[in-house]
Amino acid sequence: MDRTPLENTVYKLLHAVVVGKAYSQIALDKEFRAGAYDSNARSYITKLFYGVLDKSIQFDWIIGKAVQTPPQENVSIILKTGLYLLRHMRTPSYAAVDKTVELCKTVTQNSKIAGFVNAVLKKTASVSLPPVTDAESLAINASYPLWLAKKLIDRFGFDFTREYLLFVPSPLTHIRHNGIRLTREEFEQKYPQITQNKGEYGYYAAHNTIRSLKNSDYVVQSAASVRAVRAYFEPSAKKVLDLCAAPGGKAVYLYELYKTAGLPVKITACDVHPHRVGLIKKYAYSAGANLTVMQSDAGVFRPEWERAFDSVVCDAPCSGLGVVSKKPEILLTLAPADIASLTALQSVILSTAARYVKPGGSLCYSTCTVTEEENEGITDGFLRANPGFEYAGKPVTLFPHTDGCDGFYIAKLKRVRGD
Question: Which of 113, 114, 165, 411 is the most buried (most CB within 10 A)?
Fold first, then answer.
């Protein structure tokens, strides 16, 4: 009889992400759709899966204190699973070690490796994390790549970066009422339980609470995303283009803002990948938003769109550092060269988007990251090269520990001249 069925599932998921480069949320959703898991099992799997990903870099340091040579990837995943069970789950030490050893036997079919795992876990019991005094110790405690911790410290200072990286976001999910279907007052009357954790931009709710709501009555959307869309909103705009719209949340909310204000608008929402275009269509249909959805590469100029839109939105591809609490695998693969590659793409997208803006129109740029190169570096550089545009208000960078939401950058520009 399999003594570690849930741990086996977690191992399979971790292997898919770490080795197979799968996206954590997609892998987890696929597993839950395929398997018959009750709510307790889903909760356990989710916590252990994301916990290991979140602590992976820190666990590499801990394992390094117990072994001279890094173990093979599959053994490393097993050891990290055991470390999370030992340090962060309500599992007695003997049971955590037993589960991990049994998992190792199942995965490797090798009793010697299982013995090695047992010995390493016992050695790590005496390993404590270092006090946070410098970049290296902060990176270990926060489970961040050292190069990235240093980059953030250089930009924001040590104290701010320490608070940022060690901040633990709420596990609750941010949702908002679907204003296309019902008002906020109607939503709260229909679901009074949702008002227990009410915020400025929506509600924070546990998964059990969200499952009790009718799908068409609410939208899962981060507070940062809601705030960005409100900044994009231009009441006088009649034609709006969202160049990087998938999965569709921002375009749908923009449509809602215009509809509830009684303002006519045509919103075109695009993505470069066909399957992501499908996600936008599904999102819009579910919410009741009337969008024109099409496939288009944001970095390739379309002559028929030149100066055709009152407002153009670029929620650009980015490093995603503002959402690592939801996508911890980002920190396991991101490299300095990736940011350089992204900034090149972001510059192309913003410059292309600018050509679609009418005189007097707005150009909106946002990312879910906090690096200067991808944020101010892009918009400041664009303005230096395009004197016909200027900032429409000061750009905003949001942080989890100061703003209670995802890390995010929001900049709105205006075309003040026709050149």
Answer: 411
